[in-house]
Amino acid sequence: MAHARSHIGIDLGGTHVRCARVDAQGRILAAERRQTSQAGPEAVMRQMADLVGRLREPGTRGVGIGVPGAIDAATGTVLNIPALAGWGHVPLAEAVSRASGLPCLLENDAKAAALGEWRAGAGRGCDNLAYVTVGTGIGGGMIVDGRLIRGIGGLAGEVGHTHVTDSSEPCACGRYGCWQAVASGTALAGRARAAVAAEPSSRIAVLAGGEAVTAFHVAQAAREGDERALALLADFARLLGMGFANVQHCYSPSRIIMGGGMSALFDLLQADMASALRAGLLAGFPPAEILAAELGDDAGLVGAAMIAAEIE
């Protein structure tokens, strides 16, 4: 009896290791998660092997892993993961393959999510798209002429470090003016905290209730019509749109798909992002359509499984 073909996708995060069995159409058939062990790479690799063992079936053909950091895809080596200690030059693909008996490939997590949205989400049927994840930072993955592009060292798509301003707080990379330094969820929260410090009785402060102000307090206040919150989001959307213009100039997508935690605010940001994209785009070129991601947190899982399908 023939068994339905499937692949395993793993999304390695600083908080959780998520694992799913995915069919050829990008549908998640089964999924589990574990809290990411802080005991080092060996412990995390054991977690991955256990999850693969629990989810695999006779038709499972391979494993793909989305990694939140720098990798050498050719050798299956993790070069660095900023959110996890000890992950320098770790042969992750080899270890998981040896433990599971299945072939294994690695990909950057944002590129894996781009592939997931392309195959099974908001990018279906589009051969030129940009996936931009906006959360603590900004990352991305680019589909150009029907192909996920990686470039030398896998650097293609690291759009969070494109330059959009001559003044900003320092980026996590140590430079100034990076897109993610001004247009990430972290940046929005920082501006909101400054606004609350200047106006302690503001609606944002009331909603925060003495806790650290986050982007979602801003969104909540904006949905109530608070003018300060609406102004913060309008500026945030403008900065996102400026970066989207850079993305379109570099990769020429017809769709820009916004994922990550800040995509929960998409309805509040959409109009101003689109306006800023149009204003920043070279005259004569139609602006890309900006869409919210459809797969949410599952995009990376689905995409990692699709990466595994490349083995065949």
TrEMBL record:
Keywords associated with the record: Transferase
Superkingdom, natural source: Bacteria
UniProt-listed PANTHER family: BIFUNCTIONAL UDP-N-ACETYLGLUCOSAMINE 2-EPIMERASE_N-ACETYLMANNOSAMINE KINASE, ROK (REPRESSOR, ORF, KINASE) FAMILY
KW Manganese (keyword) present: no
Protein name, per record: Glucokinase
Originating species: Labrys wisconsinensis
EC numbers on record: 2.7.1.2
Top-level taxonomy: Bacteria, Pseudomonadati, Pseudomonadota, Alphaproteobacteria, Hyphomicrobiales
Pfam families (UniProt xref): ROK (PF00480)
Gene Ontology terms, MF aspect: glucokinase activity
Family under the similarity heading: Belongs to the ROK (NagC/XylR) family.
Stretches assigned to coiled coil: none
Enzyme class label: transferase
